[in-house]
Design a protein that fits this description.
Distance between the termini: 49 Å
Number of helices: 6
Helix content: 10-25%
InterPro entries: PTAC
Keywords: Acyltransferase, Bacterial microcompartment, Metal-binding, Transferase, Zinc
Pathway: Polyol metabolism; 1,2-propanediol degradation
Number of strands: 15
Catalytic activity: propanoyl-CoA + phosphate = propanoyl phosphate + CoA
Function: Involved in 1,2-propanediol (1,2-PD) degradation by catalyzing the conversion of propanoyl-CoA to propanoyl-phosphate.
CATH class of the largest domain: Mainly Beta
CATH topology of the largest domain: Barwin-like endoglucanases
Strand content: 25-35%
Structural class: alpha/beta
Order of helices and strands: HHEEHEEEEHEEEEEHEEEHE
CATH architecture of the largest domain: Beta Barrel
Number of domains: 2
Shape: globular
């Protein structure tokens, strides 16, 4: 198969499309594959993207059927930047103490081994839930809630968290930054009169990931991500801030 050639107009169109889809930065798997780059790389180097991860729910297969009916499966509506992950058509109501609720929270796929609700701090206040900051999947000892779907409800005994900020990357990205899975990094968002530095950005490295930082809605608003002019990711403790 002949290599795919991209002219300047095509590349600019890809960049505009990536920016419109949410988050600062750009990247395209097809472009990377065509040029022999690692996933998400452009012109032979990592291409940093920072995205706001709005509140969402992860479900088990069992809970999908309970909430949406026997035999139900998640129906993809929009692919996420990370390959293989998607926003489903389905939403659920999240109910906290004293019947406080968020009426329409998006379910993300694919399904998982344990259901989990990821909120921003203001969401947890609205629900009346003291949700701790946790990395995804670390739900032992966390509060629960009730999920309500069109076919039924689920009482979660645990699983409500405020997702800790993190960066997805592949092993080539990790080598470029001199980090490994589980390390911490530092993110600087430069925006007009609102420049913000985020510490404790967890590295989540695997073979196929594309370089993307996830921050929550409150963090995105605090740094005015939509108006950012520059994003910088550095290894914690590297002295880069001096």
């Amino acid at each position: 198969m002949n290599a795919i050639e991209f002219d300047r107009a095509q590349i600019e169109a890809l960049v505009r499309q990536a920016i419109r889809s949410g988050g600062l930065g750009s990247g395209n798997a097809a472009l990377g594959a065509a040029t022999g780059n690692p996933p998400g790389w452009v012109d032979g180097k990592p291409n940093l993207r920072v995205s706001i991860s709005a509140r969402h729910v992860h479900l088990t297969d069992e809970h999908v059927e309970t909430l949406f009916g026997r035999g139900a499966t998640l129906e993809p509506e929009k692919d996420l930047y990370q390959d293989g992950f998607y926003a489903a058509k389905q939403t659920v109501m999240v109910v906290g103490p004293r019947r406080r609720m968020l009426p329409s929270v998006r379910v993300l796929g694919p399904t998982r081994s344990a259901s989990q609700v990821e909120l921003a701090f203001t969401d947890s206040i609205s629900l009346g839930i003291d949700a701790p900051v946790r990395h995804s999947g670390h739900i032992d000892g966390t509060p629960g809630c009730v999920l309500v779907g069109p076919a039924g409800s689920v009482q979660l005994e645990q699983g409500v968290i405020r997702a800790a900020r993190h960066v997805h990357m592949n092993f080539a990205d990790a080598a470029h930054y001199g980090v490994e899975n589980g390390d911490m990094m530092r993110l600087k968002i430069t925006s007009h009169e609102c420049t913000t530095v985020f510490e404790d950005v967890l590295v989540r490295a695997d073979e196929a990931a594309k370089l993307e930082v996830h921050i929550d809605t409150d963090e995105g608003n605090a740094c005015h991500l939509d108006g950012a002019s520059k994003v910088e990711l550095t290894k914690s403790g590297c002295g880069c801030e001096k």
